Amino acid sequence: MAREDRSRRKNKYPPPGVDAKAPNVARVYDAMLGGKDNFAVDRQVVKAALRITSNAPAGALASRAFLRRAVRYLVGEAGIAQILDIGSGLPAQGNVHEVAHEINPAVRTVYVDNDPVVYIHGQALLADARTTEVIAADVRRPAEILDHPLIRRFLDFRQPVGLLLLAVLHHISDAEDPSGVVAALRDAMPRGSYLVVSSFRMPGPDLAEQRAEAVEMERLFNERLGSGYWRPEETIRGWFGDWEMLPPGLVPLPDWRPDEPGPVTRDSIYYGLVGGVARKN
Ligand SMILES: C[S@@+](CC[C@H](N)C(=O)[O-])C[C@H]1O[C@@H](n2cnc3c(N)ncnc32)[C@H](O)[C@@H]1O
Fold first, then answer.
1. Is the shortest distance between the CB of 165 and ligand 1 below 6 Å?
2. Which atom belonging to ligand 1 lies closest to the Cα atom of 139?
């Protein structure tokens, strides 16, 4: 048993309602990022992913790097002063509000996640009644998020909002209607708002090797985490509706306005994760 697992046991961790015997999305992602808020079962999923591709953690790292670049764009270039981050994840290096505050300390951020551990950690580490709040809610019920009293108090929906849906929609099945969910959220945003999305994308048949690995990853995620859908690019593009897609469009994450263009490994991880930013005109 790893040291952090032992010390958590001593401190009556996990809290009630948290299943330390089953892996979960937020903790596996944390483990991929080299974080400490995960259990042995979560690290086993990472090990299984590494057997499919030794580059597996690159996806989580590319996601965080995309998040930082997109938030810097929203706050620094687009002048966004309020952010709604749904499927926010466990606190990690370069949290959204921290990246935003490096540019504008007045930016208000609300983190939303349906994982109780994310909520507990977020409350402890992120919430600061003036600029940053955390709520527990499910993206599959957008009306509950939009009508949440704290969100209504904290965000002004007459002013542009930066809406982040990063690495979360690929955990929503087709039956749970991700397109309908995003459309409801888009409709509630005023003009001048921005939507940032990243999601698993199934490489096309022309990329047979990368596609085969993505299929394996999809199987692993669904078996062990209960969700994880690698979708066609057109489906993901559809989530932006009629909002204006900013250059360079919907692209593999390392290609979205890289800080320092450098070599990237064009493998199943590169082709399997895309992101983009769009504006409501
Ligand atoms: C892979 S993490 C991404 C974290 C962060 N957005 C990022 O890109 O670094 C996905 C997060 O979405 C959350 N999530 C999954 N399904 C959700 C749902 N139905 N409603 C809200 N959050 C959800 C998970 O708990 C997890 O924290």
1. no
2. 20
Cβ of 140 below 6 Å from ligand 1: yes
Q: Which domain holds residue 100?
A: 57-279
Q: Does any domain span residue 44?
A: no
CATH value at residue 239: 3.40.50.150
Burial of 254 (0-12, 13-18, 19+ CB in 10 A): buried
Q: 206 alpha carbon to ligand 1 midpoint, in Å?
A: 30
Helices in the chain by DSSP H: which ranges? 3-10, 25-32, 40-52, 57-72, 96-103, 116-125, 142-146, 149-154, 178-188, 208-224, 233-238, 268-271
Domain count, the chain: 1
Give residue 158 CA to ligand 1 midpoint distance, Å: 26
Best mutation site among 18, 25, 163 for ligand 1 pocket (most ligand atoms within 8 Å of CB): 25
Is the pTM for the entire model greater than 0.90? yes
Query: How far away, in angstroms, is 120 Cα from ligand 1 center?
Result: 14
Instruction: Classify residue 161: in a domain, yes or no.
Output: yes
Q: Does 243 fall in a domain?
A: yes
Pocket test for ligand 1, best of 171, 173, 197, 217 (most atoms within 8 A of CB): 171
User: Residue type for 82, please?
Assistant: Q
* Token pair for 40: 């042995």
For ligand 1, the distance from its centroid to the CA atom of residue 53, given in whole angstroms, is 22
| Phi and psi torsions of 109, nearest 5° | -130, 135
In this structure, is residue 71 part of a structural domain?
yes
Q: What is the pLDDT along the chain (281 residues), one digit of tens a residue?
A: 444 444 454 455 666 667 889 999 999 999 999 999 999 999 999 999 999 999 999 999 999 999 999 999 999 999 999 999 999 999 998 999 999 999 999 999 999 999 998 999 898 888 787 899 999 999 999 999 999 999 999 999 999 999 999 999 999 999 999 999 999 999 999 999 999 999 999 999 999 999 999 999 999 999 999 999 999 999 999 999 999 999 999 999 999 999 977 778 999 999 999 999 999 99
